[in-house]
Amino acid sequence: MQTRARVILTVALGIALGVWFWLDRHEPNPWALVHSTPFQAFFLAIIFFVPLVVGRWWVVSALAGPLAFLAFWQATGHHVYADGVAPPLNAESIGSLIWLALWLWLLVAVRVAWDKLRRRWHGRAQRSPGL
After folding, report:
1. Angle at 80 between CA 75 and CA 86, to 5 degrees
2. pTM of the entire predicted model
3. What is the pLDDT of residues 55-107, one digit of tens each?
4. d(CA 33, CA 39)
5. Are 13 and 59 in contact, with CB atoms under 8 Å apart?
6. How far apart (Å, rounded) are the C-alpha atoms in residues 76 and 87?
7. CB atoms < 10 A from the CB of 17, how many?
8. End-to-end CA, the chain
9. Percent of the chain as helix, strand, coil, to the nearest 5
10. If you write DSSP's letter for every residue of 80-94 in order, what string do you get?
11. CA 109, 37, 87, 96: dihedral to nearest 10 degrees?
């Protein structure tokens, strides 16, 4: 895969994550759309497959999308959740970003390990005598 396609996928993931964070923390009813099964399945699929496809450590830069959204809301004085007193950049939001970054890096590590194993198998197949 070309680097340009990887960058496009990473930007798309960042936008999708920003939308997800916005819908999850938007008033008055964040639970109506975000926690429906088709919506969750879509976002979980892209969070799982994009790092595997991109396979580069910089896929974590996609977290700039939700971070930019949360920083914008923080700067404009919005509050999140039902109580209306929690700032957007609270401990839960930052913890979510950290866990998501670790998840993305874990999937990238799986992809890198798979690529190394595949190259090793391919090298053995070329060295083995043909029948």
Report:
1. 80
2. 0.77
3. 889 899 999 988 988 888 888 887 776 566 778 888 888 888 899 999 999 99
4. 7
5. yes
6. 10
7. 24
8. 33
9. 75, 0, 20
10. BSTTS-B-SSSHHHH
11. -20
